[in-house]
Every structure is written in C-alpha cells, then in structure tokens.
C-alpha cells in the first residue's frame, strides 16, 4: 500500500517521533509505514486520517499489481 504520510508530516513540521507520540505507536512503526514496509491496521489508518483531517483514501492508495 502506498501512502502520503511523509509529505503530510513534513508539511506540518512534525518529526516521526512527534507523529508516533500523537498516534501512540513507536517511531519505528511510523518509519515502517512511511517506507511501505508495514501496512497499518484499519484502526491506525483511520487515526492517521483523522489526525491529518483527510479522508483515508486520500492518504492510502493500494499498490497496483502489473499483470
């Protein structure tokens, strides 16, 4: 799954650690989500969308597999 969390976080001037604290997860989790190594749970994805004030589908987009 692709996401725009790094850009949204940078726009607000938040560090990964600050975002992690707001979401009550580890900084490593934020890094893993931003780099696509980890897809957040649905409740966490909704929390991220709520925090940034955007619809979940504007932050997360599915990977499009090539045939």
Automatic annotation (TrEMBL):
Transmembrane segments: none annotated. Pfam families: HTH_3 (PF01381). Residues 5-59 form the HTH cro/C1-type domain. Keywords: DNA-binding. GO terms for molecular function: DNA binding. PROSITE patterns: HTH_CROC1. This is Helix-turn-helix transcriptional regulator. It comes from Telluria aromaticivorans.
């Amino acid at each position: 799954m692709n996401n725009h969390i790094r850009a949204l976080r940078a726009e607000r001037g938040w560090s990964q650690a600050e975002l992690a604290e707001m979401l009550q997860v580890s900084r490593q989790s934020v890094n893993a989500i931003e780099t696509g190594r980890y897809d957040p749970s649905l409740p966490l994805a909704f929390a991220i969308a709520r925090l940034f004030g955007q619809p979940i589908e504007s932050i997360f987009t599915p990977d499009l597999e090539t045939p």
